[in-house]
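assembly run, all chains below
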Amino acid sequence: MTSPDLTPSKLQARGVWKTFGAAVALQDVNLDIAENAFITLVGASGCGKSTLLRTLAGLEARSAGTLTCNGASIEGPGPERAMVFQHYSLYPWMTVLENIKFCRRLAVHRQPHDSASVEAAAGRADALLRLMGLAHVASHYPSQLSGGMQQRVAIARALMSRPQVLLMDEPFGALDAQTREVMHDLILHVHRLERSTIVFVTHDVDEAIYLGQQVVLMAPRPGRIHQIHSVPLPAQREQDMKLSPDFLGLKRELLAQIRATSGMETDFDLLAKLSRAGSIDLAPEPTAHPTHG
Ligand SMILES: Nc1ncnc2c1ncn2[C@@H]1O[C@H](COP(=O)(O)OP(=O)(O)OP(=O)(O)O)[C@@H](O)[C@H]1O
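ok done. output:
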């Protein structure tokens, strides 16, 4: 993860802390994210994944340390960084196309613009509609779309201003398993095409491995980076790879680390404990066979 000094990181954290009163959400976070990387953040609930993402977005101020994008200190949101949330946050009274163009419209109002820039924006919106498979619903309203479609609109909207960095907070968390798989391949395609740097938060270890070139495993109380794993899979992902020994080996290791760092008990641990306490008997009673005399 650490880049040589000659190729500066796109995003860099040095000694970053974030506290909420007595709670330490981030403890001494150091991270280098290279340009065009796809990084996933995974870990038990409360380990600081969202807080780290929000500080990178500039939505949350850090308590200590330095955080840079392109070498410049992050002191708030910026046009080079876009965020996608789990809940689609679309404007219900706008069509799909209007939603996608909306952020761009805000930006244009801040700058002098000419017909060429407006035309370029229209071309970009059309290209994103096609890329995200939304061309046939351009004039629909969000309530007429499935959850997966709504999230595609939210991603297209985030991409409209050509951000260099896409920060995604459990964007597929509310989708069903099949839709998630489609979205995984779509976001990998978007990453290849747009050449953006993506930081993606998830609870789901399979999702973290399938999408990430590197998986940053975080641990709670205090929130911190536990270990950074490189994903030993070919760059061009295919769904079948989820059954490969490399995938399953990393999955096993990540799950064990999440359990160990969170003090989480599996259902089996809990059953074993109850059994030892005498509250439950796991061993089946030997069945008494009727004797036929
Ligand atoms: N605004 C806030 N005020 C107080 N405490 C907060 C706030 N935001 C986060 N925290 C605390 O900081 C810690 C990290 O929270 P965070 O939401 O970043 O974790 P997470 O790994 O994203 O969790 P989850 O996976 O459950 O979303 C938690 O203990 C949380 O309670």
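The longest helix spans residues 177-194.

Residues 20, 23, 25, 43, 45-51, 203, 223 surround adenosine-5'-triphosphate (CB under 6 Å).

not gonna interpret more than that til we talk
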